[in-house]
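Reading a protein record of the kind used here takes little practice once its layout is understood. The fold follows as a row of integers, each naming the local backbone shape at the matching residue. With these conventions in mind, the following record can be read line by line:

_____
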Amino acid sequence: MEDEKLDLVIFVQSNSYGGTERHTLDLVDHIDREGLRAAFVYCGEGFNGHIPEELSYVEVTKASSTIQNLNIKGIRVWPKVFKRFKSQKALLIKPSYFSVDLKFLLLLRFYYEDLIVIEHSLPPKRLPIPRVGFIPKIGYWRLKSESLRYFFSSLVDTVIAVSEVARMELDKHTYYKDIKVCSNGINSDLWVHDTKKGKEFRVTNGIDSGLHLFGCVGNLFTVKSFDVAIQALSLVKDRYRTKCALCIIGLGPEQNNLKSLAEKLSLDNVFFVGKQFDMVSAYSAMQTLLITSKSESASLVLLEASACGCDVLSSDVGYSSEVIKEMNNGYIVGSYNPQVWARAIENYLDKKKHEDHNLSPTRKSKFVEKYDINKRMSNLLETIMANN
């Protein structure tokens, strides 16, 4: 492919494996099945062990640099990559302001005519404007933040948000223009409850088969607020706590803090199982997904767990309320107070007798109509490949 002009080159950096990474590989797979000549260039450790081997039209390369905090070595590495993979269009995945270097974006802009970005994350909120009396005072940090937002936005041709919520936030906190929405979806044939796998997951991780298992899934960052779930479990009444457990799936910088919190609260029913390659097994093992996050644009975890028959208790983020209302499979918890979550868990356990994980034919049909991957990926690829 070195001298051949490709239809598309995709760039992404990831140091963990979660919903964004699964969505990205779904897109790569769809591009390959459509027969587009493309390159998928990734850096970081997040995709290790997950890259499909049977791709025919997409060439996969791991770059020996990053797109974050670009140093002299990176400035030398990337032009070689750009020269190797020639294309009119470049697609940058998840280029939120805190996860891409402006120098990388400038290099990318120099080598590719059309630059498209998919924003999986919500943008950081604008800093408040300080005042002296009634007179606005524009400080250095405010000026720097606004300048970065402006330059970042001016270098991009097409912006794709993964939900209407994300579009509104990007409208409010960036200088992006003409933001398009291509909602997330999942492969509803793949994400199906598997009783056998669920039992094996519990045995492997030492989780008693008789416990009602709550699960938190995602990268262990502070924004996910998994500490709220741990504290809530410690606050539920004894008659509930002895009958349930919490499983935390994922890796990240908050792991040690969360483990220390569980130990401090003397909880022996919190299980940290790390990174999981087979998430169907994990969802099949749990009855209820807990989403305690303070910021989500369009959680794939929510869709995956719902398709596998899990109920959901979620903070009011992203499109959680929409999906829960559509699927009638849970409740919104309008607080990050652990005591409020503890009461919500108790009320849920009182009302819900969760026995059948499998979606009814009617609910399955509704889920496929709303969230199946094929329709969503066709729309996304059409948007990416459209002429600017």
Residues 19-33 form the longest helix (15 residues). The chain has two domains: 5-185+372-385, 195-370. The chain has a mean pLDDT of 88.
